Amino acid sequence: MTKGVSTCAEIASQPAVWEKTLQKMVVQRDGLVSSLAGLKNRPWIVTGCGSTYYLSLHAASILRSIGFNAIAFPASELVFFPQKHLPTGFVLLVISRSGTTTETLWAMDAYRRFMPEDGKIICITCVPNTPMVANSDIVFLAPDAQEKSIAQTRSFSSMALMVQVLATYLAEKKNLSTRMKNIPKVLSLSLSRYQTLLEELGNNLGFDRFFFLGAGPFYGIANECMLKAKEMSCTWSEAYHTLEFRHGPMSVIASSALVIGLISDSAAKEEIQVLREMKEKGAHTLAICEQRGNLDWEGVDNVIEVSSGLSDWERPVVYLPFIHWIAYFRSIAKGLDPDFPLNLTPVVTLNERA
Hints:
Number of strands: 10
CATH topology of the largest domain: Rossmann fold
Strand content: 5-15%
Strand order of the largest sheet: 2-1-3-4-5
CATH architecture of the largest domain: 3-Layer(aba) Sandwich
Helix content: 40-55%
Shape: globular
């Protein structure tokens, strides 16, 4: 049996799945905007587990960018470590591919007990008719993004798109909805342009450690990239805020390191300088950016331009499929099966709490 069949198909299907997801969101727009209307002045807490915790970090940053008081926690933290400083009257945004992750369901139950009357739960998920959907007040659903494989690829990116849709509806930014319609086409063109490079990087088993650097809205995505490299290819991978990498972590840089910078527009010069310094220390460097522009890329081995037309706060999701392909090719090159990562199951379910 060929390895990685489902993962390959799911990564490749992202442009088409994104298009379907966005189309369904447009159809539901008026109802969702109406449901969200009373929540604009309330603080938000975003939660999830594993990949969706990293998506929660990203979602909280997006919400803060449009003026909301938003913070992210792993679901287990909300369950086992009550936070005395949590804002009163907060909205709970829960994210789960399956809608059945135990800790997330526990966090929802705890929230309902904490706010039995005016609590509001919004969920982002891929599977209908689940306990999470049943216990939510507002649902953002991407059924076309469901997956057979264990590691999240198109499900994560589609849910990240729905975070953007949620922010758009909360901020009433209709122009963003228009720009987002072009994302699937942009992604298809960019991926076809760089497919050979992605395969070469993935097949290079001379790399034994990956570092993903991202700041602002790219930080949560950098963490998800780190997790994909670990899950699919069993590669030592870490994620850091870009400029923080100088403050200690760069001590483990070697010629066998691949350092990947998720480049913003806001801090591009400084982020490129970090990559340049890592190159000087022997690492191979890859930058994913909006466009090269007039920036000085000397010392960066490879540069991928996505040319999305989106801002820093809108664009991070477009970077994800490039990393998916690198992790996929690396998994195959190592003789692993990315459909069935070692030691993992599609959903983490636990026994009932004592």
